[in-house]
Amino acid sequence: GAGVSQSPRYKVAKRGQDVALRCDPISGHVSLFWYQQALGQGPEFLTYFQNEAQLDKSGLPSDRFFAERPEGSVSTLKIQRTQQEDSAVYLCASSLRIGNEQFFGPGTRLTVL
Amino acid sequence: AQKVTQAQTEISVVEKEDVTLDCVYETRDTTYYLFWYKQPPSGELVFLIRRNSFDEQNEISGRYSWNFQKSTSSFNFTITASQVVDSAVYFCALSFDQTGANNLFFGTGTRLTVIP
Known about the structure:
The structure holds 2 protein chains of 2 kinds.
Chain A: E1 5-7, E2 10-13, E3 19-24, E4 31-37, E5 44-50, E6 53-56, E7 65-68, E8 75-79, E9 88-95, E10 103-104, E11 108-112
Parallel strand pairs in A: 2-11
Antiparallel strand pairs in A: 1-3, 3-8, 4-5, 4-9, 5-6, 7-8, 9-10, 9-11
Chain B: E1 3-5, E2 10-14, E3 19-21, E4 24-26, E5 32-39, E6 46-52, E7 59-61, E8 64-69, E9 74-79, E10 88-96, E11 105-106, E12 110-115
Parallel strand pairs in B: 2-12
Antiparallel strand pairs in B: 1-4, 3-9, 5-6, 5-10, 7-8, 8-9, 10-11, 10-12
């Protein structure tokens, strides 16, 4: 497809489980971002990749959160030992280069019970 | 510190009315970018516009127009002759011209409901 895709669209996890969220950016887009959007709030930055390099992970809320983009295209956000406060929509965005507009995927809604 | 304020939490208008969504930002950087995104009920953020800090020229795109005023640190968005399909949450966002980091700082959004 032409846009950013994310899978799964919905994920329900029991507290303590590990989850992995996938993002397929637009082909050729160098920059990839992950955001977390809590209910009724704007998205908040988690981490940023330029190609395969993770240049900024200042927004990751704890060391339970880990992201990778090993070949500079697909990215995975992993959350270990999920907690209820991790429940949110996780959005992935890509842009052609630094400073350009970011195109967002549909998000993964994570619910931790 | 970087901050984006959208003071209007929710707005309701009747179809065909004009509506303006306010956005005020704070930054110490001289070079920055401002954005508006639309988030319909489906949840996917849709890019609407990007402006850089050196271009204060207002822009019109169909029924949409944007008013950028650096003197008041505002980047307001007007929809003319609103339609039901305009119902969504609208986010204003800010980013910076820095190598290695261009994440967006979002406001809390304004939920627009257009009543038929």
